[in-house]
Design goal:
Elements (H helix, E strand, L loop, with lengths): L8 H16 L16 E2 L1 H16 L5 H16 L3 E2 L3 E2 L3 E2 L16 E2 L1 H17 L4 H9 L14 E5 L6 E5 L5 H10 L6 H4 L5 E5 L2 E5 L4 H4 L8 H10 L17 H21 L7 E3 L6 E4 L2 E2 L2 E2 L2 E2 L11 E3 H10 L3 H10 L3 E2 L3 E2 L2 E3 L11 H16 L12 H4 L6 H4 L26 E5 L2 E5 L28
Antiparallel strand pairs: 1-4, 2-3, 5-6, 6-7, 8-9, 10-11, 11-14, 12-13, 15-18, 16-17, 19-20
Helix pairs in contact: 1-2, 1-13, 2-3, 2-4, 2-13, 3-5, 4-5, 4-6, 9-10, 9-11, 11-12, 11-13
InterPro entries: DUF3131
Pfam families: DUF3131
Protein name: DUF3131 domain-containing protein
Length: 483
C-alpha cells in the first residue's frame, strides 16, 4: 500500500523545509514547539505532530542522534512535569515557552482536556518507546503519572472534560466522531486500555459523492452538539503511523491492513476527492486547517451537516472562500495512494515553503494564493508522510525489554486509583466484525479470524458510478443509528 523507497532529492528538500518549522518555532526552555508560527502556545495533538517530525528528521538524516536526544530528553522531562488539569490529565493548551496551563488566549488558567488529543499523543509515546528503547523509562513515567478514571467510560467510550466559564464546574462529555474517535482509541489501546466502544465504527452511514459511498457519522449534530465532519486527517494518520493495523498487531510489514475497515473507509474518502478533481478540475485535498484572519481555523470537509465540500468554522458558519488544498492532506495522500492524481498534488505542494519558517499550510481553492501560515501539525504530518515513504508504517515493535509501565506500583493500590490497566489483563474477546465483507468496495477483504483485514486497496476496484446532484442525501445505509 502506498509509495515506498528512498526519498528523491526533491522529496528530501521538502522534508528539510518542513523540519525548518521546528527550528523556527522551537522553545529552548521547555523543548516544546509552537502550534502556529511564533505564537507560544501548544496542545498535545500538535506536540504529537512535533514528535513525529523529530523522529522523521532523525531517521531521514536531517539531524544527528545528539540533536535528537537533546530534544527528546528535554521534551520528555517537560511533559513529565506538566501541571495536569485537576490532577487528572494534561490541559487542552499549554504555554510553549513556560509550560504553564493556559486558555485559548494563552492566558494562565485551565479549560479541560481532550480525549482525542491524548489518544494521538499516546500513539507517539508508544512509537518513541518502541523505536528507541532507551527512552522508554522516561516515557512510561509520563503516562504512569496520569489518572485515566474519567477519560474512558464503563463501555470503553472516550470522554473529554470542559470547564463551564460561569460556574467553573467540570463537565465530562463523550468525545469523537467516526474517523477521529477510532484513531484516538487506538492510542489508548496501545497502552492496554479497554476502549471497545470508541474503537467501534458504529454508528456509521454512507452518502454517495461522485459515485463513491463515503462513510460518515449519522449522529445528529443538532442533538449532540458535536460536528460529524468527514475529513482526511485521522485516516491519514492511522495509515502513516500504524498501516491501518489493529492496535498491538505486532505482525508488522506485508500488504495486509489488519484493521481492514479503516483502510477501506480511508480509500473511499481519498477517492471522493480524486473524483471531484476529475469531474470539476478542482484540486482537492481536504483537512482541518488554520487560515489567516477570522475565523482563524476551519473544518474543510468532504461532507458535513448534510452537504459535500462544506467548509465551516467551529461555530458552524459556512466559509466557502476558506476552502483549500491542505499541505498535510496532499502529501499524506501522495504517500498512501500511488496514483497520477497524488503525483499532481505533490507537484502542487512540495515546493510551497518559506526556507526559514517551513511549509505553508496550503493553497486556497479559489486561486487567491497560499495560506500564509506555518503550523506544527502541517509540517509534522508532512515529515511523517515522507518517513512513511522511506520506511513504511512508523510504529515498529522493536522494544523487547521489561517495561516500567508493566512493573510499576506492584502490590499497591495506585494502579486501581488511577484506572491504569493491569499488565496481566486477558485480551478482550473479539466481537464479530461491525463492517462486513459486503462493505468492502475498494480494498480486498482478508479473513483474519474474527476481524476482517484488507489488502490491495486500489481505487480501480470501484467501478465508475453515476454522479448524484448536490446537496446530497445523508440518510442512506445507516448502521446502528443510535447513540
Amino acid at each position: 500500500m502506498g509509495r515506498h523507497g528512498p526519498l528523491t532529492e526533491r522529496e528530501m528538500a521538502t522534508a528539510r523545509a518542513a523540519w525548518q518549522y521546528f527550528v523556527y518555532a522551537y522553545q529552548e526552555e521547555t523543548g516544546l514547539a509552537n502550534s502556529v508560527g511564533a505564537f507560544p502556545s501548544t496542545t498535545l495533538w500538535d506536540t504529537a505532530s512535533y514528535i513525529g517530525a523529530l523522529v522523521a528528521a532523525y531517521e531521514l538524516g536531517i539531524i544527528d542522534k545528539r540533536a535528537f536526544d537533546d530534544r527528546a530528553f528535554k521534551l520528555i522531562a517537560t511533559i513529565r512535569n506538566l501541571e495536569l488539569f485537576r490532577g487528572e490529565l494534561p490541559n487542552k493548551v499549554y504555554h510553549a515557552k513556560t509550560g504553564e496551563k493556559v486558555n485559548y488566549a494563552n492566558k494562565k488558567g485551565e479549560i479541560g482536556y481532550s480525549a482525542l488529543d491524548i489518544g494521538r499523543f499516546l500513539v507517539w509515546m508508544r512509537i518513541l518507546k518502541e523505536r528507541y528503547p532507551y527512552l522508554a523509562n522516561g516515557i512510561d513515567n509520563i503516562v504512569l503519572g496520569w489518572n485515566f478514571c474519567n477519560v474512558i467510560d464503563e463501555e470503553g467510550g472516550l470522554v473529554g472534560a470542559m470547564v463551564n466559564k460561569k460556574t467553573k464546574k467540570v463537565k465530562y462529555l463523550q468525545e469523537g466522531r467516526l474517523g477521529y474517535e477510532e484513531y484516538a482509541a487506538k492510542g489508548f489501546a496501545l497502552w492496554g486500555f479497554d476502549v471497545a466502544k470508541a474503537k467501534s465504527p458504529v454508528p456509521y452511514a454512507f452518502t454517495n459523492i461522485y459515485g463513491v459511498d463515503v462513510p460518515y457519522d449519522p449522529r445528529d449534530p443538532r442533538v449532540f452538539q458535536t460536528k460529524n465532519s468527514v475529513l482526511m486527517e485521522s485516516y491519514l494518520l492511522d495509515g502513516l503511523e500504524m498501516g491501518w493495523d489493529e492496535a498491538n498487531d505486532k505482525n508488522t510489514g506485508g500488504d495486509v491492513a489488519s484493521h481492514g475497515w479503516r483502510a477501506e473507509f480511508a480509500s473511499r474518502v481519498y477517492l471522493a476527492q480524486e473524483r471531484r478533481f476529475e469531474e470539476t478540475g478542482i484540486m482537492t485535498a481536504r483537512s482541518e486547517h488554520q487560515v489567516n484572519g477570522s475565523p482563524y481555523f476551519v473544518y474543510d470537509t468532504i461532507f458535513a451537516d448534510g452537504y459535500a465540500w462544506n467548509t465551516v468554522e467551529p461555530s458552524g458558519a459556512y466559509q466557502p472562500t476558506r476552502a483549500a488544498v491542505s499541505g498535510k492532506a496532499a502529501i499524506g495522500m501522495w504517500a498512501l495512494w500511488k496514483t497520477d492524481y497524488t503525483d499532481r498534488l505533490f507537484d502542487l505542494i512540495a515546493d510551497l515553503y518559506d526556507p526559514e519558517k517551513g511549509m505553508y499550510e496550503g493553497l486556497y481553492e479559489d486561486g487567491s494564493g497560499k495560506i500564509p501560515l506555518q503550523t506544527a501539525n502541517n509540517n509534522g504530518i508532512i515529515l511523517a508522510a515522507l518517513l512513511f515513504k522511506a520506511q513504511g508504517p512508523i510504529l515498529r515493535y522493536e522494544n523487547t525489554d521489561t517495561q516500567v509501565w508493566d512493573t510499576a506500583f506492584e502490590n499497591r493500590n495506585v494502579r486501581k486509583k488511577r484506572c491504569l490497566p493491569e499488565p496481566t489483563k486477558t485480551p478482550e474477546e473479539l466481537a464479530q466484525p461491525e463492517v462486513t465483507v459486503e462493505n468492502f468496495q475498494i480494498c480486498r477483504p482478508v479473513n483474519n479470524g474474527q476481524e476482517i483485514g484488507a489488502t490491495q486497496c486500489s481505487v480501480a476496484n470501484l467501478r465508475r458510478r453515476s454522479v448524484r446532484a448536490e446537496p446530497l442525501d445523508a440518510t442512506a445505509q445507516v448502521s446502528n443509528p443510535g447513540n
